[in-house]
Design a protein that fits this description.
Number of strands: 8
Number of domains: 2
Bound molecules: zinc ion
Helix content: 25-40%
Shape: elongated
Order of helices and strands: EEEHEEHHHHEEHEHHH
Structural class: alpha+beta
């Protein structure tokens, strides 16, 4: 038995298959990440083949069969193709810090509507607003790790529980969390984190406005990259960001 499903989806990647088909990875609102095949998608006449392009927000229709690894997609309609992101290398670079974690770090068929809506909201802001792209990427990464169950905590030392003084440089241990100066001396594998960066993370968490400079933002993106690489050995870093 197969069931017809309609859902919003973000196109994560695509691959030519056989003579005329495409294999496409979607991140969907109602069924998480999954892979589908669009038959005849590479024919010039195929509207759904064109619609299933990477970074498009689409509405798809597919036949869901439980024990089939690749689902048959029969309809794809574009809802937003984020044209300004696609025509601007800088926007594209930071949009990849959203797409790549979805590709490599989400679990197939694990539904998270909040994460889906958050992804779309950040892509809309990257496309339409003049907000700083690095700030948007950091906001997303902070939200993403929280949705994966790794919320950053800044109130007390993760080892001894001492209240954290946010006016000093501290260390972050990826297995435990933020460390007070005493504990950081005894712990290996720390990531040194300056007070300016802590303040930004604290403000993002508490939705307060903050001052920043470009180099602080780059350091924070690196912090999240290291964090994800530590938690998920299969994650090798932000490929596109490090390439361009
Ligand atoms: Zn401590």
């Amino acid at each position: 038995m197969s069931e017809i499903i309609k859902t919003r989806a973000l196109v994560l990647s695509k691959l030519n298959y056989g003579e005329t088909s495409k294999i496409v990875a979607f991140y969907t609102e109602d069924n998480g990440k999954f892979t589908g095949i669009i038959k005849g998608a590479r024919s010039p006449k195929s509207k759904i083949g064109k619609a299933a392009d990477v970074l498009n927000l689409v509405e798809i229709q597919y036949y869901q069969k439980e024990n089939r690894e690749i689902q048959l997609v029969s309809g794809v309609e574009i809802l937003n193709y984020f044209p300004k992101i696609k025509s601007d290398l800088d926007k594209l670079k930071y949009a990849s810090t959203i797409i790549e974690p979805l590709i490599y770090l989400t679990v197939e068929h694990e539904v998270n509507e909040k994460l889906f809506r958050g992804v779309i909201k950040i892509l809309e802001l990257m496309n339409d607003s003049a907000d700083d792209l690095k700030v948007l990427a950091i906001k997303f990464l902070n939200f993403f790790i929280k949705e994966l169950g790794f919320e950053l905590k800044f109130d007390s030392c993760s080892l001894c529980g001492t209240e954290i003084n946010q006016n000093e440089d501290l260390a972050y241990d990826f297995s435990h969390g933020l460390l007070c100066p005493d504990c950081s001396h005894n712990s290996k594998g720390n990531y040194f984190i300056q007070k300016e960066l802590l303040k930004i993370l604290y403000c993002i968490k508490h939705r307060k406005s903050f001052k920043y400079n470009d180099s602080d933002l780059i350091k924070l993106i690196k912090f999240f990259e290291r964090f994800l690489m530590f938690q998920f050995s299969e994650f090798k870093g932000f490929r596109t960001l490090n390439m361009i």
